Amino acid sequence: MSGGRIVAGVLAPHPPHLVYAENPPQNEPRAECGWEMLRWGYERCRRSVLALEPDVFVVHSPHWKTTQGTHVLGVPHFSGLSVDPIFPNLFRYRYEIDVDVELAEAIHHAIEEDGLVAKVMRNPNFRVDYGTIASCHLMNPAWDVPIVGLSSSTAFYDFGDDVGHEEMISLGHATRRAIERSGRRAVVLSSCSLSHRHFTHESETPEDMSREHVYHHGQYLWDMRLLDHMRRGRTRQIADEMVDFTRQATAETKEGSLSWMLAAMDFPTGPAEVHAYGTVIGTGNAVVEWNLERAEVTR
């Protein structure tokens, strides 16, 4: 089988606060409101992406950390209760997830072709991380499209930012190659925030927006710089600056999700659509879409 392609990529941050504020039936805690700009941005992005009728979402999460290479979910169905270890008061989510195991195995094979360490995770009792769950819920709350989940290798931590960044670019190339061979119409999701210095104390009412603001101006400026690159189609410049951005903004890009996604999309030169930017407990979060199919039609 061949002829597959990545039809879109989304910077899809995973703050559990956004799921909490939506009050989906799967999540036990109830909210009054909160973080509307980001949630409404997700709604706009969701409509655009689902209109492409994808066969699968492929998501790279910073919160599934593996010490030996990249792992991929390899069980057809997962279910369970996901509790955020930092915000158990906000996120206690009962999930039912279908996995495209055939594509997962193809991605695993492509990663090994490039000389990287990879493993298929076949434990049916594995608890799927909340980053994967939150991003996939916010992109497709119906959960009627299967996913492939990729772990975050600790190469950034073990060998330094530069080595980790380059490894994630290789991982992105391997992911794209596997998707093209598979015949799937895939959407790739980078499940990460931008700047990631966050408050150490939560307000009594978590959804009290009078308490929400960027942690400091410097990280805001870095976020705006990166978003300007996205809006102008400068993905290669983002890659060139990724290590500096990660260090200066204490960014969640350290785990490599954004580097992976840009490489998987082969560094598109068309402008991305920034659906929303906002803060969650001081962290900078943006919902950004690269609609590659639309870009090809309008080229």
Helix content: 25-40%
DSSP strand tally = 10
- The secondary structure category is alpha/beta
End-to-end Cα distance, whole Å, is 27 Å
Quaternary structure:
single chain
* Overall structural domain count: 1
Mean pLDDT: 94
Biggest sheet strand line-up: 7-2-8-1-10-9
CATH architecture: 3-Layer(aba) Sandwich
- Order of helical and strand elements: EHHEEEEHEHEHHEHHHEEH
- Catalogue the unreliable spans: none
Broad shape? globular
Counting DSSP H or I runs of 4 or more residues, the number of helices is: 10
What does this structure look like?
- With 299 residues, the protein is α/β, with parallel strands linked by helices.
- It has one domain (5-294): 3-Layer(aba) Sandwich (Protocatechuate 4,5-dioxygenase, Chain B), CATH 3.40.830.
- It contains 10 helices and 10 strands.
- The protein has helices spanning 16-22, 36-50, 101-113, 130-139, 155-159, 161-182, 217-231, 235-248, 257-264, 292-298, and strands at 5-11, 56-66, 70-73, 77-83, 92-98, 118-121, 147-153, 185-190, 273-280, 283-291.
- A hairpin with a 2-residue loop joins strand 9 and strand 10.
- The two termini are 27 Å apart.
- The mean pLDDT is 94.
